[in-house]
Amino acid sequence: MKKILVLGSLILMGMFTGCSDDKKEEKSETAKVKTQVLKVAFNQSEKHPQYKALEEFSKELETQTNGAYKLEISPNELLGDQRATAELVQNGVIQMSIVGNPVVESFNKDFAVIGLPYLYDSLEHQKKVFLSDVLDPLFKSTTSSGFEVIGAFTAGARCLYTNKPMTQPSDLKGYKFRVMQSDTMKKMVDYMGGVGTPMGQGEVYTAVQQGVIEGGENNEVTYVDLKHYEIAPYFSYTNHLMVPDLIIVNEKFYNGMTPENKKIFDDLMKKTIEKEFEVWSENVEIAKKIAIENGAQFIEVDIKPFQERVKPLQDEVANISDMTKKIYTDVRALAN
Ligand code: GCU
């Protein structure tokens, strides 16, 4: 109910203020007094590394733009699930959201390539890619949909968790694992030996409890944030996926900033992305400790058989278009 009310008033505000957006911005640029509050949707808690990184970004942005902008971050899916918030960004009701790569994949299929299993070798490799410019052409491709992807946060490496260890593909037989909502994600778990079952992240706990699915796949931070160790205590290090979380921004707002403010915004975002990698690693350790205290077991896995299994999916997605071919090659070239 609370969510619906917040969302309702946001949409109304958007309707009434939508046409005067430019004026408001102009005032803040010249008078340097009126701060434009950028509404940001986030689907996880205030403890999450990405939330912390965005808070820092907001402080710096406000200082460096002399108070022209600051962020108001709504955590815990308060503004809706990631898919719904992408639409709010498109329509300019809010300015920003952090969404998993599969959400943007539904606007442009080429995005599947950066969310392929075993594409990145390590966090270091992923960091190199996110701080390089190899993804820029892909990121610019959503402009016609009303938003731009201005960068990517890491969400670590995803692993399978359920009621028993998963150390080889045959262990997954008949096991339904929740995956993020995209064809690529479903195929990934199917190739790995199980049954990929797309659904929203918020539904996983109950679905496992009720036996609709046997487990999920996610990183340690989310595993603990959502207390999934209570319903799926075996976390097996398949490390099969390092899916980027994309920072999406309303196109009209983003390209409406003065060149000076846009530069500040972009430079700060790059630093924020780098910083989030550091915070991420610290949070993984903390999360693991909490999970173990609550009875979870972390199991090491030989990933080679799983890597072999998903090769057809890598080939299929890398060859979707010239863009995916180039990005696949460029990303692999940055591997350590
Ligand atoms: C991770 C990721 C989120 C995503 C979630 C999911 O937590 O950071 O962006 O929503 O996984 O599995 O849906």
Summarize the structure.
With 336 residues, the chain is α/β, with parallel strands linked by helices. The chain contains 15 helices and eleven strands.
SSE diagram, text form:
Elements: H1 2-17, H2 21-31, E1 36-41, H3 49-64, E2 69-74, H4 82-90, E3 96-100, H5 101-105, H6 123-131, H7 136-140, E4 147-153, E5 158-162, E6 176-179, H8 183-192, E7 195-198, H9 204-209, E8 216-218, H10 220-225, E9 234-241, E10 245-250, H11 251-256, H12 259-293, E11 297-300, H13 304-309, H14 311-318, H15 322-333
Parallel strand pairs: 1-2, 1-3, 6-7, 9-11
Antiparallel strand pairs: 3-10, 4-10, 5-8, 5-9
Helix pairs in contact: 3-12, 6-12
The chain binds alpha-D-glucopyranuronic acid.
Alpha-D-glucopyranuronic acid (GCU) binds at residues 43, 82, 100, 155, 180, 201, 218, 222, 245.
Secondary-structure class: alpha/beta
Number of helices: 15
**Biggest β-sheet description:** 5 strands, mixed
Query: End-to-end distance, in Å?
Result: 48 Å
Number of domains: 2
Strand order of the largest sheet: 2-1-3-10-4
Bound molecules: alpha-D-glucopyranuronic acid
Shape: globular
What is the top-level CATH class of the largest domain? Alpha Beta
| Oligomeric grouping of the chains | single chain
Summed over residues and divided by their number, the pLDDT gives a mean of 92
- Named CATH topology of the largest domain: D-Maltodextrin-Binding Protein, domain 2
The number of distinct β-strands equals: 11
Strand content: 15-25%
